[in-house]
Amino acid sequence: AGAATDGTEGDVMTYLPDLYYRYEKLDAAHFRYGIHTEPVDGTYRHFPASLVGRYKGYVSDGKLYSRSGVPPTANLTFDEFKMAATARGEGFQLIDFAQHCQLAMLLYAKYKTRNLQSVLGSGGTSYNEGNETGMRNAFGLTDTTPETATGYVQALGIEGIFGCLSEYLDGLYYHNGLWHIT
């Protein structure tokens, strides 16, 4: 029957595997990415395995959840979302910069392009009433295509991976003209 996506069995998450990566800039418009499941040499950096929410965040009783069939929470500040994530307990957080990069690199490797909208579609939805999470449940883990990506774009089992609602990214901040990764 599969796992319940309504939260009665807990959050619905996507597993990001333990990976090692490197990239090099070939010229102004081209990059080469290397991704492995084992450390290859000293030039590869490590992405530890982690879980990320399958759905856009839903805050209830001051805690952040990944559930189907609920409207994604909007109009909270970064600090409020971060507090709602950490209120869940040890190991819970907002998606951080490393996880964001890991998702991108997995998709670049899968589709052999950085133009992900060309293969997944551009999507587009808003926080309007009725735009509940779970609109891609019938897709299972299948990625969307430009023909099927009205509403939420889905990739790697994550609904709304891009092209819809704004998000906060932890571990990255801008100060005095420089981006800092923490």
Key traits:
182 residues, alpha+beta
Describe the structure.
This protein is 15% helix and 25% strand. The protein is of the alpha+beta class. The longest helix has 15 residues, at 97-111. It is globular. 23% of the residues are buried.
Main sheet: strand order: 3-2-4
Can you give the helix content as a percent range?
A: 10-25%
What gyration radius follows from the Cα positions, in whole Å? Answer: 17 Å
Choose one word for the global shape: globular
Given the helix and strand composition, which structural class is it? alpha+beta
| Low-confidence residue ranges | none
Alpha plus pi helix count: 3
Brief summary of the model shown:
Helix content is 15%, strand content 25%.
Give the secondary structure arrangement, pairings included.
Blueprint: E1 13-16, E2 19-27, E3 30-36, E4 45-47, E5 50-53, E6 58-60, E7 63-65, H1 78-86, H2 97-111, H3 117-120, E8 154-155, E9 158-159, E10 172-175, E11 178-181
Antiparallel strand pairs: 1-5, 2-3, 2-4, 6-7, 8-9, 10-11
